[in-house]
Amino acid sequence: MPTRSLFVTQLYEADLGDQPLLDELAHSIEALARDDEAGRSWSRAHRYAGYTSYASLNDLPKRDPAFSDLAKVLQRHAVAFARELGWDVKPKLDSLWANLLKSGGHHSGHIHPQSMISGTLYVEAPKGSGATRFEDPRLPLMMAAPSRGDTFVTVEPRPGLLLLWESWLRHEVLPGTGKGERLSISFNFA
Fold this sequence. Notes:
With 190 residues, the chain is an alpha+beta fold. The protein has helices at residues 19-35, 37-45, 60-63, 65-84, and strands at 11-15, 50-52, 93-101, 107-110, 117-124, 132-135, 152-155, 161-166, 171-173, 182-189.
């Protein structure tokens, strides 16, 4: 009797393919990292190795035309992903934040509560930038099961790569080993 897959976890991957927009976003992220004192203070207080606007700016699409353009692109991708998941909903962008992660920086495993779709767009990702690693959602329930080789799936960042996943999927950013800063934009849809 053959086996079949149940409850597959989907990861949406797309190439943004818009270098001018990526260039504008990189410029905006670098300016934010320089000028957003509240974000820099939060990053220092929480030992974030670089800068994030996560706790300081919640209106980037209204504040910056590049983020406004990006919000429209993300909306189209989120609708396509929701359709692939078989959802009869139109996701709405709930939050969006910029990240500048220095070499060696990481972000520990987490989920995004009160969201339905989460994601990241890699704007700049020098060789050796920290990869994003996704955890098998069954891991806490495996109990006495033997170890598996596919408990984690790692995705190497590259400029223009857009990832979307259901917000309950645990993920982390592994420490980068290369030189340079990894620029990304993370977001949630509700």
